[in-house]
Amino acid sequence: MALSVLNNIPSIIAENELTSTQASLQNTLTQLSSGSRINSGADDAAGLAIANGLQANITGLTQSVANANDGVGALQVADGALGEVTTLLNRAVTLATEASTGTVSSNQRTALDAEYQQILQQIDSIGSNTTFNGTTIFSTTTTVTTSIFLSDSTSAGTTTIGVNVSALSTTALTLHGTSLTGTPGSGGSTDPKATLSDINSAIATVAADRGTLGAGVNRLQAASDVESNEIQNLTSAENQITAADIPTVVANLSKYSILEQTGISALAQANTAQQQVLNLLH
């Protein structure tokens, strides 16, 4: 190669190679410190787009699992309240059965009815005051639908699970206005025997409502399990795209570190070679 003072071509070549090596070394250090293969759109534009989409799916599913668990909690609160109502109604069965026998006086029926009326008031109180997260669970007159929103952040992966929570009150259970003060067998709302029949019907209604709630809990738990499995699989897929292969990165670190040192040495040699032109002037 001819010697020239205008341009040092070997130095330019060595400098370009050194610049490229240092860029690769910097990228390797970034991957090693972050643990991620993709740290900017320049690293892998298509991979970054796919990974970000998967991350959105994972985020949506994670919150959906929380939504499902909250829904299960609300339904379990409702079921617990209805369990207490069943206990109260069973006590009412005892009172109505006792009031229906002919050996009980009218005064004693009045005493039995006093406790029975307290039971009815407590049932109304449970229907009005049972809450979850500040929201009343039961309506005293109409069915309430508890809607649980589940999504993987896409329109195609969105669903809403609705569970009906029946009204809870003595009116809804057809017990309002009943008492145990009448003569057994006389008929009407004060007849203890008629009231006993009404109480048994109320117990059956509450049992059916609890069955509906139980089915809703099972469905939400199943949905939560499915979404947890999706989160696991999507996280694995996202990891395959973005995670750095640490052994490979470490090998590259050694390679580019050596190349950087040899590049600096080569650049120094190229600059030194240019000095040989001065020998021609002596």
List keywords for this structure.
single chain, 282 residues, mainly alpha, f41 fragment of flagellin, N-terminal domain, two-stranded antiparallel ribbon, 5 helices, 4 strands
Tally of contiguous helical segments: 5
Radius of gyration: 39 Å
Shape: rod-shaped
What is the CATH architecture term of the largest domain? Up-down Bundle
Number of strands: 4
The domain tally reads 2
Walk me through what this model shows.
- By secondary structure, this protein is mainly α.
- The protein folds into two domains: 9-37 and 245-281; 63-242, Up-down Bundle (f41 fragment of flagellin, N-terminal domain).
- Helices cover 66% and strands 7% of the residues.
- The protein has five helices and four strands, in the order H-H-H-E-E-E-E-H-H.
- The strands form two sheets. A two-stranded antiparallel sheet has the order 1-2. Strands 3-4 form a two-stranded antiparallel ribbon.
- A hairpin with a 6-residue loop joins strand 3 and strand 4.
- The longest helix is centred in the first third of the chain and has 55 residues, at 45-99.
- The protein is rod-shaped and about 140 Å long.
- The protein starts with 8 loop residues before the first helix and ends in an 8-residue tail after the last helix.
- The model has no long low-confidence stretch (mean pLDDT 91).
